[in-house]
Amino acid sequence: MIESPAFFYNTLSQKKEIFIPLINGEVRMYTCGPTVYSYAHIGNFRTFIFEDLLRRYLKVKGYKVTQVMNITDVDDKTIKNSMEQGVSLEEYTKKYEKAFFDDLEILRIEKAEHYPRATEHVDEMINLIKSLEKNKVTYKKDGSTYFRISEFKDYGKLSKIDFENVISGSRYDSDEYEKEDVRDFVLWKKTDSESGEPSWDSPFGVGRPGWHIECSAMSMKYLGNSFDIHTGGVDNIFPHHENEIAQVEACTGKKFVNYWLHAEHLKVDNQKMSKSLGNFYTLRDLSEFNPLAIRYLLLSSHYRAKMNFTLDGVRQAETTVKKYNEFLRRVNDSPLCNEVNGELVKNIVNNFKEFIIALDDDLNISKALGHLFIMIRDVNSAISDKKFDNVSKDKVDKFINVFNSIVDIEENQSADSDNDEIEKLIAERNAARNNRDFKRADEIRDILKDKNIVIQDGKEKTTWYVDGQ
Ligand code: AMP
Ligand code: ZN
Predict the structure, then answer these.
(1) pTM, two decimal places
(2) In principle, which of 17, 98, 228, 453 could form an S-S bond with 448, CB 3.0–4.6 Å?
């Protein structure tokens, strides 16, 4: 457990703040999940990987984390597409929900504790709307029920939007319904019983819930009226998260969430990667690449910095992941010298400390990675100079352990076929040498040299590394 304090940039206060959870040692966090109307794209996964980084970092800090991610399995798009395809809403959304969970696993995004589906929490949403009705912040128009935001004085405290300008400008909510004030948003949408659309009975008539009420009702159910962290992409700040605050705080009268963290967008050619622009990649489009490289790429720039996606970037990330795994193998395979290398021990300890300090500072992962790479460089050169000792190895192991539990790009051994091939060639070369077949032994050494593999014959075994690391 690493006890230094964590600082996060809070969208609500627009400042970095020290993180203090409501319950000592525990973190309750809500993350807006996918709408399962098609495959999630890697822009979505940038946000989900940022949330994974946050979750894993908090666990390394010793917190017990309870994370909730909703699955939006009813909205305009899921309904429209399922009706067009003539399948039930459930059949339609289940396919994409499964694909989403498969993708999470491929990208090693740790499982949240709860994945509530919207369609299974309609009762909770109805109850929340009933409380809002009781508190007189709703009105009905043309059969639908709306939140009247003029009744909630704190409206706008998260997004700091200048409403004077917005009102005179364009619409900014996607709900195509008539409302009294452009800022108001729908809580319950009337549906036409003839249309065949999925709908639920409620005290407000037959209809279905709006999108915003879903996250409020489900977060309250699983995390309580007030909790620690709420996350999402920056596009969620307004109106979605602003509306979540209005719904919960108008119901409970208490502060809903203490820390709001938002990830910047992944871009392509300097435009937001999005379904509507058609400029997106799903994991299926990138299946030729190592998924750990995609994970690494999406995670390696600071979550509040915009990031431009390129295929070249994925290729570079593949090289980095390979080098990191080569380093892990070398650390384990290299012989240790007897004399303690004090200078190296000091460097490793120092870089580990700086690695944590960088993460404590609003998850500054790019700076943290810089310290990992300095450590790798120092250790690699000590190994080449035969100056890698026991104590240094212990310190490296500690660093690697923490790094693996946060960044998690260690290859599964069985998947590492390149290494298997090298090991096989080395075994064949040693057998050739034992049989005094020096011609074959030299041939193999040349094959390995072409692959940039340098071999070192030790007393007990032959070790190898990739040149230039
Ligand atoms: P959606 O399925 O559209 O509700 O999005 C799921 C999550 O992905 C939300 O937290 C969005 O804010 C986030 N998101 C959508 N597009 C991008 C993008 N291009 N870059 C980063 N996050 C995104
Ligand atoms: Zn949400």
Answers:
(1) 0.89
(2) 453
